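hey team, just a heads up i'm posting the complex here instead of the shared drive bc the drive is being weird again. everything in one block, sequence lines first with there labels, then the predicted structure for the whole assembly after. its two chains so it's a bit long, scroll down
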Amino acid sequence: MALDPTDVRKIAELARLEISDSELTIYTHSLAQILDLVGQMNVVDTTGISPMAHPSDSPLRLRQDLVTEQDHREGFQKIAPATESGLYLVPKVIE
Amino acid sequence: MQWETVIGLEVHVQLRTKSKLFSGASIAFGAEPNTQACEVDIALPGVLPVMNRDAAYMAVKLGLAIDATINIQSVFARKNYFYPDLPKGYQISQYEIPIVERGKLDIEVDGKKKTIGITRAHLEEDAGKSLHEEFHSNTGIDLNRAGTPLVEVVSEPDMRSPAEAVAYLKKLHALVRYLDICDGNMQEGSFRCDANISMRPKGQEKLGIRAEIKNINSFRFVEKAIEYEIERQIDVLEGGGEVVQETRLYDAAKNETRSMRSKEEAHDYRYFPDPDLPPLMLDDEFIQSTKDSLPELPAAKRQRFIDQYRLSDYDAGVLTTSRELADYYETVAANAGDAKLAANWVSGELAAYLNKESLDLDQAPISAELLGGLVKRITDNTISGKIAKDIFEAMWVGGGDADSIIDSKGLKQISDSGALEKIVDETIAANPGQAEQYKNGETKLIGYFVGQIMKATQGKANPKQVNEILKKKLG
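-- predicted structure starts here --
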């Protein structure tokens, strides 16, 4: 399947990845190869086969609704770059 | 041109669990920032989500109550976007296969009934909160809310006016309270609404381009925001322009909606099934036991009130608008000995006082038992309805129960016929002219005599007996 460099730029932007022009060529090529492989799989006739949501057969495990976690804010915030009044600080987000 | 408004609503219902959707951290409101955000919620590496069973139970409860299809297998997906209050970089939600699909809710506007389709209701986790003020041009992040379980209820674009939208929203709000799956607190954000609004020429099938309004946190604002948006879109369309498909924010202080363009480019969420979470499987036993646990729903309760208490459809509708009000009414009725009279007092005097002082029912200073006790004294002829209103007022400001007020103020109705006859005789004697006119056929004057007697007894005379005695003596 064809993939052009603008698609790759957009995907990178959505994933917040910075890629250089030379990397762009490499990624365009290797991503196209992945899509080719998907294209090969698409040839297989899957009529009557229900889509798989997860490779594991086991259903989702459910837990009881109990509060089991304690407050570890102090520990967590030791590795945060900036905190104040118990809040994590980040560069201003403008709505 | 005649325009038709098309409205669809997305409501985020915060589930009343104790812990989060995928972690054991508490979801209690109002804690110190970040003290209820564990490793899973703040997305430290190596953690895995484990789903809360009660969240599934509550979502199924809702699904059953709106006559929806419950999907035996539903799938969690990652909705990817970057925002500081979303530490994982994705929100765990349900996309292709939600837990609940194709339900409905009946609404009523100006006596007209209408069914609103519900496309789906899916489970998802909430994000944290961003605080934009006072941090030296930084944004503060509180992740206590991150991971809180929500059910997002998505309606069909079936509503045609702000009034219908509000009616739907109120109905859904009452329902989640009835089901006890949400505390319904809109100020705290437990019940939040986004509205999709578009206009089309009347008679046209094809939908117009819609705008989505976010951040509407009261019934009144929903109405106002939609009204504003309708006018804005008509202006744009009649000015020859096109409505832009975008997210807009409602500003309650200015009563306007405005564009949130910053979010537009990010509208590519790249959903995919979350590899950390296998499908959620529900068995028949789970669904059946959930069904068995459902409380009496509003429509059934309304019908029961009509059958059991002989109330009108209207009264039954009013008294079942919320579970709290219905419970309150039933307690009053049980204590009052007259269900119809009890209904009049709850939807009359009580509602008027609550409304006047902008109080919610749970803040009412008179308990249902005490109000029932007051109505009981009307039923058994201890006091008249008029005196009861004065006693109600005294009870409202903390005067205690009806009986002690009746005793202490000597308000007991005069039903002793000897005493009443004496008063009637005196009154007739004091008004010979009116008595003469009455005898000459001006029977309307009986009202005048009743008034005089009530005045003389400070309203304590039993009006029914007074009428009978008067008729006998005057006639």
